Each structure stands twice: as C-alpha cells, then as structure tokens.
Amino acid sequence: MAPPLLSVHNASKRFGDVVALTSINLDIHEGEIVGLVGSNGAGKTTLLRLLSGVYRPTTGEVVLSNGESVDRAREQLGVVPENTGLYARLTAWENIRYHARMHGIDDQVAWLRTSYFANHLGMTEALGRHTKGFSRGMRQKTALLRALVHAPNVLLLDEPTAGLDVTSARTVRELVRQLGDEGGTVIYSTHQLAEAQRVCNRIIIIHNGEVRADGTPESLLEQTGTTHLEEAYVSLTKDVARARDEDSKPLSRWSSWWRGLFTPKTPGGGDDEE
After folding, report:
1. Contact 146/155 with Cβ under 8 angstroms?
2. What is the pTM of this model?
3. For the domain with range 6-262, which CATH number is right: 3.40.50.2300, 3.40.50.300, 2.40.320.10, 3.30.70.360?
C-alpha cells in the first residue's frame, strides 16, 4: 500500500483547561472518501483545523506523505470551511482566481479547472456575478470551486451541505462521489449519518474528542452487532456528549468578570439552592 497522504500521530489539542481532542491517530490514503461523523461539540471542526494546518496540535503531529508538517505545506490541501469567507464585492470567478494566484496557478489553467467543476455544479452562468447576493448554496459551491482550483491532494469539507436546499445538497454530494471515482481524496465532516453512508467509503466516528470507531459502514455494523448505522453510532457513543465549547479559547480574566457581571442568574438556580 502506498504511504498515506495525510497522517495524524498521537495528536491532542487543548485550549487552556479544555481538552478538545485526545490521542488521535489516523492515516488518510489516496482515493478515500472519509466521513468524519459526530455530534455538535464532538471535536470534528477542531480535528479538521489540525488536518488543514490552521491549528497546531498541543502534542503529537500532523504530517503529509513526505513527513513534512501540514502547516508548512497547505498548498497540498483544499479546504471548504463552514463559513465560506468569500469577498462579497468580487465575482465568483474573481474569488476563485485570487485564490488560484496565491497558489501560483496560471489564470488560463485556473479557468479550465473552474469551468470543468462549475459545469457539474450548475455554476457556469453565475461565475461572473458578485457573490454579495448569492444564496447559501451558491456561496458553498463557489467555496468548493475555490478549494479545487489548485488541484489539491486532499480536500477537507466542514459540513458542506449544512443549510443547503435538497437540490444543492444533492449536487455537492454527487461531486464528492465523482471526485472519489476519479481517485480524489476527501475528508467530509458531517453530523448526518445517512449522508455519510451515501457519500463515504470510510467513516470515522468522533465523540467527546476521541475516535470511537474507524472503518467502512459495513464493518461498523459488524463491530457493533447492529443492522443500521444509527444504531451503531448510538452503541459507540453512549456517554453523554459534552457542551460545544471545544473550539473556544478560555475567556480572559477581564472577559470572565464582565460576563459574570452582566449575565443574569437562572431563576431558581445558584449556589444557595438546597
């Protein structure tokens, strides 16, 4: 087997006293469509930020196939964050071209790649429009085109269909499956089990900052002795999910004082309750 494109070696991530991820070990190989599945607050976004080099692990490492730290070779990755971060005063194509130029891609090459994927996403006619008036679905598609324009080795998607209408979500899923059929590698974060099962050939279940299972949908069913992926997920995540605070840095002393001063007490609560 060829060496993995992306590897996580015993990585953890802390924000002050908050432990977001604990002892993560993963290998991502070429051609895999990996579903990163977990509830809100499970640690999916934190892990994606480690994989994309936005965060550095507190312990451990995240490296590419050549052993280089991922934060030093981000050009090999394509990232679609949950918040697309488009420049509203630029057209869709201008947003994509700006990104391509940052990666040293010639405009003509960038246009050919963009046109190819835009045709599959039904975006061709919208490339010349300013993104300010775009729907969420159109912004998400533009961000996807932007992430693909420099031909990355690994594509990372954070909740790519969240908030999309049925047609737009289906189009995005079909493109991801097409990328997989063509040998592309995608890490697909979602809390929708059914979506992960339709799109991905490998599923990683993360819960409370830990990897609870990693395998094909069929192997997860066999491992848990269940007949539905939802039952398998429940079986692997029986402990109570933590609050969604793993991506937030601890408040400063001043911020904590200010919040405490102006946050009203919950009726019937407080330290004096018997």
Report:
1. no
2. 0.82
3. 3.40.50.300
